[in-house]
Here is the input.
Amino acid sequence: MKVKECMCSDICYCMPDTKISDVAKMMNENHVGCIPVCNNDNCVVGILTDRDIILSLAKYELDPANTSASSIMSNKVYSVKPDADLKDALDLMKKQRVRRLPVIENDMLLGMISLGDVAVHGNN
Here is the structure.
């Protein structure tokens, strides 16, 4: 099975200057724990998880209304292509200890694949 067969293509993302309070609202409204951070060309420049937000706000005592996504996002983004085998995506998640990967082709964000997506669709 290919990544594109079970990825979520209806994704939300934020810009580097989006405030953390707005990112948290997006996560809550969309029931997601991870938001890609994209530039004006829809290219992924970082990734932000709910865990990143909690740990950064607690550790540095940041104000979420005045802190931008770019200041706490992870710059190292592991990703897969839509035509990648699902097994390769799972191997990358395991190796890098992540539960979600952006699906990127030609530097453009096409979707996200998570362990949950694999659990639902991976046995078909």
